[in-house]
Specification:
By secondary structure, the chain is α+β, with helices and mostly antiparallel strands. It is built from 9 helices and 14 strands. The protein has 2 domains: 2-138 and 314-318, 3-Layer(aba) Sandwich (Aminopeptidase), CATH 3.40.630; 147-275, Gcn5-related N-acetyltransferase (GNAT) (Aminopeptidase). The strands form 2 sheets. The chain has a 10-stranded mixed β-sheet with strand order 4-5-7-14-8-13-12-11-10-9. β2 (46-50) and β3 (53-58) form a beta hairpin. The longest helix has 17 residues, at 85-101.
Length: 319
């Protein structure tokens, strides 16, 4: 097995491999990276080849002797098909050899949580740990396991159930799946400003992502008498998981509980369209000194929708 540096001629084969992989997501596709302004990042994406066939891919970059994955994306690390343990060991050894030859002093790899895998398989995790990678960081995230045999509303906490049913009876509250990002984004900006942060993506970024990957974005908007009051932007990360990347709310309409309604609609749509989980994202206290500090109130809110904890883990190796 060998590693080669990614080049544009491999783009279609790379994305085809990610799509058929067990653990790849939209964040691993080259189409996704194309939304970045040229020159913003200097990538060093890697392709693992055996007898001319792609066995794994790794998006990322080398900077100051550190190979980090992801860069410019939510999830990274090594993408594979469903693999046997001896194959996982070979991938780990090949990566370490590449690092030694190419001046890498440290690898930092953050993969998608296990729910994103078509065939849950921790061979690669164990192989990396066996080869002296160590867990460096854990983020607490929350996901709702979907089941088409279960009614959705009864799964929610009693107050949520009551609020969802109330909005369903209110003809002034309507839901649309549309592409009105210009209505969604200004409210998102206001929400983020309350916490002195900005969205990861600009409005132009979102339009570019929609242009590049229209099948991977789904915007849910809640209206009251035709006025936008809440919404959720889903990133359809892969065939297994829909990811609530952004939720927004106009706080002067908070009494109508539109976030409760939009979460119901997201879970309903995701269930009906064959997804296995809705990922509601990480729940860290961003103001705390320790980046692992959990946001108790946010976790509690997500648990009201029957969400359970999943972890986003970072593995590190110092050579």
């Amino acid at each position: 097995m060998t590693i080669i540096e990614y080049s544009e001629k491999w783009k279609d084969k790379w994305d085809a491999f990610v799509k058929k992989s067990s653990n790849g997501t939209m964040f691993h596709q080259q189409r996704f990276f194309d939304y970045h302004i040229p020159g913003k990042f200097s990538f060093n994406h890697l392709i693992f080849l055996e007898k001319g066939n792609i066995k794994a891919v790794l998006p990322g970059r080398i900077k100051d002797g550190v190979y980090e994955s992801p860069i410019g994306a939510s999830y990274g690390s090594i993408v594979t098909l469903d693999l046997k343990f001896d194959e996982a060991l070979k991938i780990a050894d090949t990566l370490i050899d590449y690092g030694k030859v190419n001046g890498v002093n440290e690898f930092v790899l953050t993969s998608a949580p296990m729910i994103y895998e078509t065939y849950p398989n921790q061979n690669l995790d164990f192989a990396l740990l066996w080869k002296n990678f160590k867990y460096d960081l854990h983020y607490i995230s929350s996901a709702i396991k979907l089941d088409e045999k279960l009614e959705i509303i009864p799964r929610f906490q009693s107050t949520i159930r009551r609020n969802v049913r109330k909005t369903l009876k209110d003809s002034d509250v309507t839901i649309e799946i549309n592409e009105k990002y210009d209505e969604f984004y200004p409210i998102l900006i206001e929400n983020k400003a309350r916490h002195n942060v900005k969205p990861t993506h600009s409005l132009e970024d979102i339009y570019k992502l929609h242009e590049l990957m229209p099948e991977n974005l789904k915007l849910f908007m809640v209206y009251y008498k035709g006025e936008p009051i809440a919404g959720s932007l889903l990133f359809l990360a892969n065939q297994n998981v829909s990811l609530c990347f952004y939720n927004m709310l106009r706080y002067d309409f908070e009494h109508l509980k539109p976030i409760h309604r939009v979460m119901y609609e997201v879970v309903k749509w995701s269930t009906e369209n064959g997804y296995k989980y809705v990922d509601i994202g990480v729940s860290q206290d961003t103001k705390a000194e320790n980046p692992m500090t959990p946001s108790i109130s946010l976790i509690d809110f997500k648990e009201k929708f029957d969400a359970k904890t999943i972890m986003r883990n970072t593995l590190k190796l110092t050579l």
